[in-house]
Design goal:
The protein is an alpha+beta fold. The chain is built from six helices and four strands, in the order ααβααβαβαβ. It has one domain: 3-Layer(aba) Sandwich (NADH Oxidase). A four-stranded antiparallel sheet has the order 1-2-4-3. It binds flavin mononucleotide (FMN).
């Protein structure tokens, strides 16, 4: 795949084949993500690999519960948009993907979010280049039950930046519309 193909084929995937993604492949993709730049080369990203569908179901239920409670406490546009979907018992926030990688780290690192987001971009492209599909699942950050945190091996003082599902796509959808770049000023 040329880089141009990659740019166009990297799409958020929400329909997966049942096929498992080998652990070795996930580890290789994670290794590629470590080539991403980070502030002062601090490399603050840590990874949790979950390939267990029961655990993913458990996390999905936990995040849905917490999000719905948040909507009840403070209604807003998120509630309008997502409440009905999250109330659907059959809806799994991970779209029944075979695996999810949690990118996590210490919030003491000022650049944690930016560094991890860059690493996630690399993860997405490395996966796409191997014929795999990914989707950043922001909903998946809402794990609050200390037992579940412990079960997945999330250190107490770490925060979750990005849960990224990985699996073999059923199909790669056409790119979504993007508006033209908003170039505010050109000074030459
Ligand atoms: C920070 C972030 C959080 C996201 N959270 C979710 C999510 O919880 N569920 C979901 O289906 N997609 C999620 N997405 C995927 C976006 O909806 C998707 O990237 C966007 O619609 C553009 O589509 P594309 O990635 O196919 O180009 C998230 C993306 C980002 C960058």
């Amino acid at each position: 795949m040329t880089f141009d193909d990659l740019l166009r084929n990297r799409r958020s995937i929400r329909n997966f084949q049942q096929k498992d993604v080998p652990l070795e492949t996930i580890k290789e993709i994670i290794k590629d993500s470590c080539l991403a730049p980070s502030a002062s080369n601090g490399q603050p990203c840590n990874f949790i690999i979950i390939k267990n569908r029961d655990m993913m179901e458990k996390i999905s239920a936990e995040c849905k519960k917490n999000l719905l409670n948040d909507f009840a406490d403070s209604p807003g546009p998120m509630k309008e948009r997502y409440e009905a979907i999250l109330q659907d018992e059959k809806f799994n926030i991970f779209y029944n993907a075979p695996s999810v990688v949690y990118v996590v780290g210490s919030p003491d690192v000022d650049s944690l979010d930016v560094d991890c987001a860059l690493a996630v971009g690399y993860l997405m492209f490395s996966a796409a280049q191997r014929g795999l599909g990914t989707c950043w699942i922001g909903f998946g950050t809402n794990i609050r039950d200390p037992k579940i945190k412990e079960e997945i091996g999330l250190p107490d003082n770490y925060s979750i930046v990005a849960p990224l599902i990985i699996g073999y796509p059923q199909l790669i959808p056409a790119p979504l519309e993007r508006h033209d770049p908003r170039i505010l000023q050109i000074i030459s």
